[in-house]
Amino acid sequence: MKTATPPNIQMVDLKSQYQRLKTDIDREVMEVLESTAYINGPKVRQFQADLEKYLDARHVIPCANGTDALQIALMALGLQPGDEVIVPAFTYVATAEVIALLQLKPVMVDVEPGTFNVTAEIIEQAITPRTKAVVPVHLFGQSCDMEPIMAVARKHGIYVVEDNAQAIGADYTFADGHQQKTGTIGDIGCTSFYPSKNLGAYGDGGAICTNDDELATICRSVANHGQASRRYYHDLVGVNSRLDAMQAAVLGVKLKHLDEFAQARQDAAAHYDRVFADIAELQTPVRQSNSTHVFHQYTLVVKNGQRDALQAHLQEQQVPNMIYYPVPLYEQEAYKNAGMNGKDSLPVTESLCESVISLPMHTELDIPTLDYICDAVRSFFEER
Ligand SMILES: *Cc1c(COP(=O)(O)O)cnc(C)c1O
């Protein structure tokens, strides 16, 4: 086993990335400071236009964070208290939180064990006459299988709000061969620019994205106190949710590197895959053939109840790691029994919460660091 002093490994290395982009980022941020256009203004408009172009989306509405993006999207759909919204139980809490906050009913469903994503079949089984929307989450950086999901949603007349917080930049390929970016396929897509996300700001940020002109107008209004086109005239009860110019300046620089960031993550993932391929107790990330994977997380499934022991071993070896996610949403104190439709457990979600572990994943992983992490994982299985 390796005895060398471990490198200072980070789960997410924002510092080295900043140092690489420092000249451009410092210049852009200084321009904002000098301009005093701290809210809205040219940097926010430019980033919005750049992101519309990158995503090939008609409308991007920047906002304060990813959770706000989801809330604004759901507010724009005009849902009524008690309306049901289908959401995976294996996701970050924000997805269900906004549903509950708006007094809608989160109906939690299971995910597919390979990709960790919801499928059209799972969604269709949960649809009732009260269902108004579904929020598919492109978990860990890979698209849900959106074409059948859109078909089921259209068949039942429900809205699709994509939670694209972890997958910005991923491409989904339709049966006819055409591709679309995740977040631009459903009625509305929502993303987060939280610093550790694939396109991360240096603070909070988020965006809503839609190809529907009418929904775009409503989202823009909801995000701006429900103000319509005339200043100080308010048609809706809205919220105050803005992307500040400093964050837009940082994001504008980073957007130009987003595809190269994805490539670096994919290279690191391929390295992990190669080393772990012959470890029978590990399930490496399953790639869906019709989606690219932008690896927000590199998440292993550890078989035979060994996850916690592997985690302890990695801790000892000073290899950072995280459990995304340790608890099914419906077992969280705040969401106990929330809309489980009579079922009291979802088997895939339960099993994933007990068996997943995520390894360091970011844009600055070099070969010695990857080798150190891989050796640490391998030594656990070799010692038994
Ligand atoms: C990060 C994240 C959010 C929330 O984004 P914030 O910007 O932190 O509010 C929502 N959903 C998922 C799946 C996320 O990973």
Automatic annotation (TrEMBL):
The active site is at K197. GO terms for molecular function: pyridoxal phosphate binding; transaminase activity. SUPFAM superfamilies: PLP-dependent transferases. GO terms for biological process: polysaccharide biosynthetic process. The modification N6-(pyridoxal phosphate)lysine is found at K197. Keywords: Pyridoxal phosphate. Belongs to the DegT/DnrJ/EryC1 family. This is Transcriptional regulator. It comes from Flavilitoribacter nigricans (strain ATCC 23147 / DSM 23189 / NBRC 102662 / NCIMB 1420 / SS-2) (Lewinella nigricans).
